Automatic annotation (TrEMBL), chains A, B, C, D, E, F, G, H:
GO terms for biological process: 'de novo' IMP biosynthetic process. Pfam families: AIRC (PF00731). This is PurE domain-containing protein. PANTHER family: PHOSPHORIBOSYLAMINOIMIDAZOLE CARBOXYLASE-RELATED, SLL1489 PROTEIN. The lineage of its organism: Bacteria, Bacillati, Actinomycetota, Actinomycetes, Propionibacteriales. Transmembrane segments: none annotated. SUPFAM superfamilies: N5-CAIR mutase (phosphoribosylaminoimidazole carboxylase, PurE). One of its GO terms (molecular function) is hydrolase activity. It comes from Nocardioides ginsengisegetis. Residues 95-227 form the PurE domain. SMART domains: AIRC.
Amino acid sequence: MDQDDPRTADLGFARVDVDRAARTGDPEVVYGAGKTPDQVVAILSALHEKHPERAVLATRLSDESLDVVRRALPDATIDLVARAVTLGPLPEPRGTVAVVAAGTSDAPVAAEAALTIRVHGAGVDRIDDVGVAGLHRLLAVRDRLATADCLVVVAGMEGALPSVVGGLTGVPLVAVPTSVGYGASFGGIAALLGMLNSCAPGVTVVNIDNGYGAGVFAARVARRAEVRP
Amino acid sequence: MDQDDPRTADLGFARVDVDRAARTGDPEVVYGAGKTPDQVVAILSALHEKHPERAVLATRLSDESLDVVRRALPDATIDLVARAVTLGPLPEPRGTVAVVAAGTSDAPVAAEAALTIRVHGAGVDRIDDVGVAGLHRLLAVRDRLATADCLVVVAGMEGALPSVVGGLTGVPLVAVPTSVGYGASFGGIAALLGMLNSCAPGVTVVNIDNGYGAGVFAARVARRAEVRP
Amino acid sequence: MDQDDPRTADLGFARVDVDRAARTGDPEVVYGAGKTPDQVVAILSALHEKHPERAVLATRLSDESLDVVRRALPDATIDLVARAVTLGPLPEPRGTVAVVAAGTSDAPVAAEAALTIRVHGAGVDRIDDVGVAGLHRLLAVRDRLATADCLVVVAGMEGALPSVVGGLTGVPLVAVPTSVGYGASFGGIAALLGMLNSCAPGVTVVNIDNGYGAGVFAARVARRAEVRP
Amino acid sequence: MDQDDPRTADLGFARVDVDRAARTGDPEVVYGAGKTPDQVVAILSALHEKHPERAVLATRLSDESLDVVRRALPDATIDLVARAVTLGPLPEPRGTVAVVAAGTSDAPVAAEAALTIRVHGAGVDRIDDVGVAGLHRLLAVRDRLATADCLVVVAGMEGALPSVVGGLTGVPLVAVPTSVGYGASFGGIAALLGMLNSCAPGVTVVNIDNGYGAGVFAARVARRAEVRP
Amino acid sequence: MDQDDPRTADLGFARVDVDRAARTGDPEVVYGAGKTPDQVVAILSALHEKHPERAVLATRLSDESLDVVRRALPDATIDLVARAVTLGPLPEPRGTVAVVAAGTSDAPVAAEAALTIRVHGAGVDRIDDVGVAGLHRLLAVRDRLATADCLVVVAGMEGALPSVVGGLTGVPLVAVPTSVGYGASFGGIAALLGMLNSCAPGVTVVNIDNGYGAGVFAARVARRAEVRP
Amino acid sequence: MDQDDPRTADLGFARVDVDRAARTGDPEVVYGAGKTPDQVVAILSALHEKHPERAVLATRLSDESLDVVRRALPDATIDLVARAVTLGPLPEPRGTVAVVAAGTSDAPVAAEAALTIRVHGAGVDRIDDVGVAGLHRLLAVRDRLATADCLVVVAGMEGALPSVVGGLTGVPLVAVPTSVGYGASFGGIAALLGMLNSCAPGVTVVNIDNGYGAGVFAARVARRAEVRP
Amino acid sequence: MDQDDPRTADLGFARVDVDRAARTGDPEVVYGAGKTPDQVVAILSALHEKHPERAVLATRLSDESLDVVRRALPDATIDLVARAVTLGPLPEPRGTVAVVAAGTSDAPVAAEAALTIRVHGAGVDRIDDVGVAGLHRLLAVRDRLATADCLVVVAGMEGALPSVVGGLTGVPLVAVPTSVGYGASFGGIAALLGMLNSCAPGVTVVNIDNGYGAGVFAARVARRAEVRP
Amino acid sequence: MDQDDPRTADLGFARVDVDRAARTGDPEVVYGAGKTPDQVVAILSALHEKHPERAVLATRLSDESLDVVRRALPDATIDLVARAVTLGPLPEPRGTVAVVAAGTSDAPVAAEAALTIRVHGAGVDRIDDVGVAGLHRLLAVRDRLATADCLVVVAGMEGALPSVVGGLTGVPLVAVPTSVGYGASFGGIAALLGMLNSCAPGVTVVNIDNGYGAGVFAARVARRAEVRP
């Protein structure tokens, strides 16, 4: 029986893996989808109590959960665009990730990625509204792309932005397809396929709308890269 | 019974619609896939005889058909890259279509489009190797794009080129996805979806590898546009 | 930093590309899906102020947005079928696009295409209820099809109408699949595939329900064709 | 144990259901795909011996099987286009099925349907090359369509022909999609979807290239209809 | 202009093809999905007025439309399971169609097929709850299957029922896949594929949940077969 | 480093997990696809040497591999239908699995399942040619189905056999879809979906053509069940 | 006519197969989806009355149905997580099935499987929260896995848990994909494909979220295995 | 005109982008698929001549191309497993990428990744045959995983390995699905979906069999990380 396993916290409705931080160097995170507001508050509190010196992150929160958290945990910081919450002090940023978004509809995913990166210990440079149908905007920020330690590129519809960005610089690039689009975009499949088939070498991809996963990955890369000359 | 219909030519194995030119203003075309070399030669000859003053086009020819046509019809012009043949004089070009291709692997489809455009009465400006991962090449030909009467943009893999080109100019643009790619490109589906979901307004699409269809359409547009001031 | 870029208008929640008109010759357009009514009004007003002499178009508006726009912008013209709005004077029509729809359920997409065409500077001839299962209606309008400068053909279900129309005339034809249908129509995929595989040469296709995209393209073609003899 | 079941014939490598004719009124049929030439000959002979007074049909035969059958069974009738063979006298035709094909590439499937219909006891009226992009050919045979007892309509690419034919007449109509096409036709899926979503009521569909299945069904309908006034 | 075409009735929001009956021998039908209750009432009334001596059918009616029709047209007959309505006297039945359903969830589709058959002039024999996992029920009705003039077999989930029924009898069989199921049934696709790939020869298929289409077809077959000895 | 791990045998081109038998109670198995004939012989010999007292199985062998094995390992037993080989004595059978196949084309998959079951320690009862379109054959073997300890049911096309068998008995049933079929059977996907959506409760499924996987599972079930009263 | 068939109970809106228990040894089960609360109560009562000595199971109940059952049948036992109800005494457990779930979101499916197993006569050992990204939890319960008579392994997202569990033990294993996930998980398709392609031999699969089907199967296996030494 | 663009080398049949190294810090690479052996040799030579001090890489070479390169360029190093070639000295390795492969069939993709990493300036630690069905092998190399600067994890079939590895360590992880598998693995789609839906956070994915893309990305990450304390 592992019910007394010190690596897990048993909250009755869930066993929380409080050991992952030790294994991976990452903070604890609560995936809010499918959880009641009270469950979100309970898990956030339990994790915060265990490690008050570092931030806990909760993502994919419903309107109701955001509201309950705001009232139950006044010290929490709410990010309405990202639909996410942090509790506890953010770490000092090591290295920088540029989070690049194609259109305004991609903002929630970009915001989730950006907040995840900060919680996981890296800094963020946000670059918005640089879709490929208006190249002059993208070319104007070429230097910011080249000096980042990692890139997270967020786009829906045809998902072409990572190919263009990937041709401009050799910085490691994580592409995030979003479910923005209609008709034969299939909830982000068109963008996902576009990114998987990018003609720019060295583009990697995460699941549709998965700003969190891209953020975890990019922060790990940026933290390691930070001390280079 | 329509067996004496003057609008069709009965070759035994096929009835050829020799009336389409009258209805649509386009030349006769032989779709070579699935036809024997002898059938291709027979149909080309029959159509050429009926209208020796204008070109007939045969597309999608096998190596064997190209070979048999070369020997049987010494007056035919062979295009090995397009895998196509013309018989009879090409018309005077009216208007210009720029045929833009992303990579060298897209050359056969671009060549089929270009030859089709010429046979259908418009002129061609070929622009090759301008993939989105190397923007400087594309930006260098911006003027040629803007002065064309219609654009045919050919790309495989993620199919991003039409979005970028469509953001640079307001010339009518027909996108052609190619089956170039591997893995999750699904024989051109990724490029097709990318083009259907283009963030640049006014992009239209034809079937995968359908250089012929794009060429017919673009020539019709260019011929009509030619006389503008 | 490009925050003072004269080519964009920064509204706080969005940077609007007011330079596209210069690049492409097209008017400004607001894609209303996912925007709040207040955002729609704000963008419409900002764009109209910048260029009061030409029309701005807003598409894909919710019931609520249509209502708010009506009250906030009394000078706006509301098209309830197209779920779209224009503000400012429509341009003089140059050339004519025939907008052909298969069934009454296709009316919203056809209306969006028609309004887009007018805003983009071409004239419109609407031809409705000419599905392929009742050929006599279609054959009765054959002349109107042949004298247009471009055709936009809208159909759901099996999407067969562009093939039949494309066999009747050589006018450039843009097909628009609609999401009308049920069962194995897959929200318009069956019609989309039918149009991509049309046996009539020279048919091009846009995304499902994309009346706007077809309209932009067709207006560009018609405007160029208008001055031919 | 059913090894002595009089309703089956055990040939060692297969047990043949010789009782189906009694249950369904149909002749015996050998599906040749995946069978060796010798197996085809053995089954044909066994079935013919059991009922020499009626025809046996073998379909989907390879070049090699067609060749071996020709030499081993000189009384067999070979249909090279349908890739099928009959042995024994064809029944008197009761009722008529019109087999309508869109293009020359659809001929093998139409031929398989036609031969199946004859073997299953109905007569056949073949109507070829009446694709929807050339309506005048189809309208010319309108009377032959209306006087048939059942229609089998064969088409590839977008599969639009059954919709048009179904709008011209109320005769029961079975549609057969063929794998003719390329790109996003997906080996006949586009045509299959087009037919399933036909806007003409009363269209039924069989599997891709399944001329045999359509033929069995249509013959059953025509045989029953034959004696109507 | 065809605005005075006697073959259509213009109701303002729709042109109704009142000539189809003459072309196909079938009654007029109103497809209710996407129409307002008032539109349904208006079309039913217009069609009924034109031909009070025969029945008009309206299908796919919403709760609200059923309610409005009941109050506005007291002479109409309402079928709550089929979600359909008839107005005017049903024709004398000629021939019989057996409508066979696998499970209770398939009842609405079977009811729509049955009512359609009656309106289109044939008689109906309903056979319910004969799924393949309980063969004894099906074997008990074998005689009723064999004496019908046509079969409509309705099933969801794996769609196996037509294969089993098709092996028991040679009566023409139309299979209707329903959207009953969950998980990897994909809203009826699993059943549709099962029916298209039926190992029983002579099975034809209509679109998912398309009881209406199957009914039109089956009635046409049964009416023709009725006078056989 | 685990290079001296006694649980693996390093053959240079592969490390073989010789410990799985201890973990799972199953024999060693060589998956022959993608291996050269010499590699197959080498692995078979190495495994046989280690445990000469029990059988080793090699599956999915090419013609060439079967030939090389026959000459190199004269003690091996070749199963040409299953394309598989055993080396070493088969275990005493404990419990019985009935392997049921719908058609003769399903024989190779059924044979692979049957041989796998024997090698994994259970007995086999083969029941062939009992497709659902000829129910009398299946009903004749009902007793053999009911007395087995586990059932493996193999079928292609619509994959309906497991539903029918599963309705006749409560014996645990593993369904194996085969790639037998054409057109919209998608290489076995139609059968796979049919089996996953079976209306008979308690049907489990393995991958397409995976006779081996079904055999391993069924033998495990039968061995455990054997000693029941 | 089978209306007096003692093997079915006619409730007006449904005929219930009360004979299945005799054929398969399993209890009666009511599939609640799509049934009204009153229908659920009526069927439960009818089945319970017929066999008060054994449990009846109702699954997939809506909130409303759960509520109505609670009030109408006070003797029923409600399982809110499984959304299921039992009426009548549970049988003595014979053999044990370990129900293994990857994450807390998989709990409803695991609960449905567990309750089904108990109703079908076997015992249950629940093992929760043992996802593959935290192997230590899974390794800690290795003994419980090895001593079970059958395993039901429930997982969403990538569905990797059955492969890992299947490598640890040779106990028969049924995998249940859940619809837990987002983006390209396609409502459980990713997990389903992962399980069908498991590299661990002897893994069988049921439909997405089909805890009931897995439970029926596993209980049958465990009951048979129970008496082994 | 860019024909004299110093950033491209014109070889007649292709313009090579020799400027990408300057933009991205990466070496030149020749994608061999679809190129003739002579073209491969010509491009390799041209690139090597331009920069003899650094390595050029050619991937996806046919047997014939490998053979011609071996004879034409005796200084080239051939990697038969990776089907790739290098010409010129490899750079000093900075940082280390662990390349982890599930099975022997994944070796070609792992070898392509490993060689790409070396050519792009990082070191490689190869870890093979550590599939999830034999966890002890994977757990034995846990330290090597944790000390790498980046991980490339290669797996086919269900693609579960990245989830398990990602749970053991926080090192940045790029997953490569391979086309190894059969049946419903769809040429690598099952593995691709499994990886996109990984329950381990921070897993990114490249296209199927794209060892090259993963290698480019991982080398970029490792080079940057190398100088960390």
